[in-house]
Write a structure and sequence with these properties.
The complex is a heterodimer of chains A (about 120) and B (about 110). Chain A is mostly beta strands. Chain A contains no helices and twelve strands. The model of chain A has no long low-confidence stretch (mean pLDDT about 90). Chain B has about 110 residues and is mainly β. Chain B is about 0% helix and about 50% strand. The chains are: A mainly beta (about 120), B mainly beta (about 110).
Chain lengths: ~120, ~110
């Protein structure tokens, strides 16, 4: 079974400094990986996705992530944090369930705080 | 804009009083999902519909039921809410079962008093 581990439950950065949210996955074959963002009392918004094309994936709002098979990692980065980036971030892997259905396996989330 | 809509955004019900949450979509997707998300936790899949075929997760309590009368609408029924059912309920859609990407609604926050 596939799984995903988010290494930090809380990350705090200053506005204008880089953001790094770490994610490691476990998979027996080539996974599809996603990052979703959730602002308080809101639904989940897809930031970016990796589905076996380019290993460096660019998403919305200046975020990007790099798929590193040798390290089984899919860390999320942004060069300069903005106050509006404060939210919960979920790393997600897609698992083929029963040979037919793609099921999303969520990490436990990383809460990003951005200090002025 | 095509989207996933959930009503109401906030719902308060009493212990044991049945409650229904609503989800609609304009994406014309075949699959609709219901997730439960408790405070500071990841979303947990309850069940999904592929067209009219209902698929329950093995650990979803019998207290939770769902209906999908047509492609656009899907309902989550909680027959006898307990205090432990207080959570955010998220609806999501995908084009088909093999599609990786799911589109989420804004969620309904359920309070049980």
């Amino acid at each position: 079974a596939q799984s995903v581990t988010q290494l930090d439950s809380h990350v705090s950065v200053s506005e204008g400094t880089p953001v790094l949210l770490r994610c490691n996955y476990s998979s027996s074959y080539s996974p599809s990986l996603f990052w979703y963002v959730q602002h308080p009392n809101k639904g989940l918004q897809l930031l970016l996705k990796y589905t076996s094309a380019a290993t460096l994936v660019k998403g919305i709002n200046g975020f990007e992530a790099e798929f590193k098979k040798s390290e089984t990692s899919f860390h999320l980065t942004k060069p300069s944090a903005h106050m509006s980036d404060a939210a919960e971030y979920f790393c997600v892997v897609s698992e083929l369930y029963g040979g037919v259905t793609n099921k999303l396996i969520f990490g436990t989330g990383t809460l990003l705080a951005v200090q002025p | 804009d095509a989207m996933v809509i959930q009503n109401p955004r906030y719902q308060v019900t009493q212990f044991g009083k049945p409650v229904t949450l609503s989800c609609s979509q304009t994406l014309n997707h075949n699959v609709m999902y219901w997730y439960q998300q408790k405070s500071s936790q990841a979303p947990k899949l309850l069940f999904h519909y592929y067209d009219k075929d209902f698929n329950n997760e093995a650990d979803t309590p019998d207290n939770f039921q769902s209906r999908r009368p047509n492609t656009s609408f899907c309902f989550l029924d909680i027959r006898s809410p307990g205090l432990g059912d207080a959570a955010m309920y998220l609806c999501a859609t995908s084009r088909d079962l093999q599609t990786y990407e799911q589109y989420f609604g804004p969620g309904t926050r359920l309070t049980v008093t």
